[in-house]
Write a structure and sequence with these properties.
There is one protein chain. This protein is an alpha+beta fold and 475 residues long. Helices cover 43% and strands 18% of the residues. The strands form 5 sheets. It has a 4-stranded antiparallel β-sheet, covered by helices on one side. It has a 4-stranded antiparallel β-sheet with strand order 7-8-9-10, with no helix packed on it. α4 packs antiparallel against α5, α5 runs parallel beside α7 and α11 runs antiparallel to α12. The radius of gyration is 30 Å and the shape is elongated. The N and C termini lie far apart (107 Å).
Amino acid sequence: MKSNRLRKYVFYFAVCSLLSASAAPIDQAKRYYRDGQYNKALKELRVLAKRTPRDGTVNYYLGATLLALGHNNEAVAPLEKAVDRGVTDASRLLALNALEQYRADDAADYLATWEEKLKKNKKDIPEQFNELNRRAISLRNMLERVEKIEILDTITVDKIDFFSAIRLSAGAGSILPPESIRSMGAGTPGAALSTAYLPQSRNRIIWSETDTAGVYELYGADILDNGDIEMIQPLGQHLGQGGDARFPFLMADGITLYFANNGENSLGGYDIFMTRQNEEGEFLSPQNMGMPYNSTANDYLLAIDESAELGWLVSDRNAPEGKVTIYVFSPSHVRRNVEAGDDNLLSLARLDDISLTRNPETDYKSLLHERMPAEIKTDTDGNVAIMLDLGNGKIYTSLNDFHSNAARAEMIKLLAAQLELDKHIAAEEKMRETYRSRPGESLAGRILESERQTDAMRKKIQTLRNRAVRLETKR
């Protein structure tokens, strides 16, 4: 009797030891995963998956870890095994993964499975289910109307100051850092990833700052001659659509506004939206720009420079952590969509292979050089170099010499106008060279018109110079 009892105890402790030994590794892997130590978690989970290939928990954490490390395709198999073994949340991760990869139909199927399992287990449907379902529907709708655009170049830069890499012609205005609006007495302190927009007229500015609830909202204000701002007004809470509205860009027509928000109609993160001002000066309900302008990542800013025939799209899709990709593209006056049956539809929507957007017969390096506005020159310290005689014995050689914000703004406008004039004169000289070899009435008329434009541009530069001097010396 005693011997039988002893055998039972030995068997009991052996089983407990075995269970303890098998439980410890998954617990350790879970801790690694929850602490963000994904590589360590992956090492543990791969061993466990070989030992217990049908274990639902092991497969769930293996799939989740692979997703966290960016191995999206590899994550599908273990997560589907986890679904088969009754792990409800695995369907949610599969749906998220499908959305990231633009597989709208797969996402819908995984969501249906998730909902079915939740109901079977008599659990409430979480709000995230409704959000993911909305995103799947939006993704499917967007993929039906992917605009075909031509990418001239891509630039990868630090996210925090991407605005400095965007070169606009004078007529397109300026994209400024948040410090510019804070120096005028507005804006939100600490909002590092933000921009303000200043049109060519320099008499108004648009920016984003937090409201009383901490939500980013777009604001506009008039700029006085002394550089101060007045008539600060929100552009409308509806622009955020329940989220943050940021990164504004106003077209040259003065009524078409592009901006980003992460509200209820966003595909994921920030999306680019467009709105227009009506006759009463109110901005209408914003419209999502669709693909390829938007993605499941963050799409921050869209700027279209009509004069240079260049568009600038800033996104953190296809970019390393802390970086963004700036897509420089050729804007079209007429929208052309990718055909529904195109084998490259998903790639064109994601912009992950810009060669698919290009014409193989086009020299894009030359085209970009021809269209790109000239860059304002700086000295060895990075300061913009100028030469402005104030007429009182002082000569300014840097923008840092200015004390008046308004005068500095006029000087920046002057520099941009001078660059435009230089480019215009170079094009005019090419026309003269062509005319000397092949005279013609049509070209002669274009040269005369160009000369009139040159005179007007020179007068404008002189006016800007006089205004900058006046504003700086009247302090």
